[in-house]
# Entry
Amino acid sequence: MNPKDFQCPEAGRVIRAPQGYHAFVPAPPPPKFVYDADLALVLSRADAALSELSGLGRLLPNPHLLIAPYVRREAVLSSRIEGTRASLSDILLDEMEADVPHGDAADVREVRNYVTALEYGIKRLDKLPLSLRLVRELHARLMKGVRGDRATPGEFRRSQNWIGPSGSTPANAPYVPPPPAEMQKALSDWEGFLHERDKLPELVQCALLHEQFEAIHPFLDGNGRVGRLLITLFLMERGRLSQPLLYLSVYIEAHRQDYYDLLQRARTRCDWSAWLRFFLTGVEETARDAIRRAGDLMDLREKFRKRLGEKPKALVLLDELFVNPYVTVARAAEVLKVSNPTARQAVALLEQHGMLKEISGRKWGQLYLATPVIKAIEKPAARYHQKVCK
# Structure
């Protein structure tokens, strides 16, 4: 890390560790920045899109039907940023057929842990506000049983970490977070800012909290995933998001280098406006995509409900396919609490109406997929505004 790159003392200070390398200690948030006309417009658009998405979440007849696929899609995309290669199909199949291997087992476990951590965090908000304690609890669930022996689930690091390409060290990495002693003070400042209310727009505060968390990098592993989890949980705690439907991982993945460059530029040049524009544009694009995707799924559900008519068992199974579009007759029997022949009739009816398709080619233990559902979930995200990073 080159100390000369850090040209803005207001962002933090560069120190020299006893071991000889340099590290960055962020200044207590919030930083000073100017609301120019461009930033105000981007904030207004993001705020409107988020409010529309939150309103939609309150009107959903059965939120769980849409939340489940959103959460799993986010888990796959967020984990992919960190190098896992598990697909959404791997995760959905693993949930339905836990005794059958699907994809790389270690990758699947990491993604499943993300789902567990997010669902835990949402429930925990009923009793515990966002805090360093909850951050550690999320990390413990995220890193439980993952590969490697340096994860220390649920514990803030007691040794130095760094951000850089494979093979780099603290001596030559592009960014070195604060050493453990300085990290504790930085975390305390971060938590104090987390608890502030009515001083900044929630979306601006969320963006600054995310940058600060990534600058501190308090864990040996899993910082990026925890940081992205906290975006959704912060907005839910503040009442800006009624359901967990907003996830920025797809946007960050699409603009990964800009994301890393702008985080670094906030530290080196105090370019907070560029970082905020990037983050807020991501909120707007992601919220509008979530609105469109939710509408597609609700329309699809109503379309097939009309086709099925008054068929109670088939209608119950139809809803289950929005939670997990893969199904077997045995799984259908379990969901419907009926005999195998009755479940087979419900599956056959959905297959007859074009909702299910047999994809295994097996005579026994046949596997069916609700192709219209998986297509709606995996539909590429739309782009609403061209982001320019200057």
User: Anything to note?
Assistant: The beta strands are 12-16, 22-26, 326-327, 357-358, 368-369.
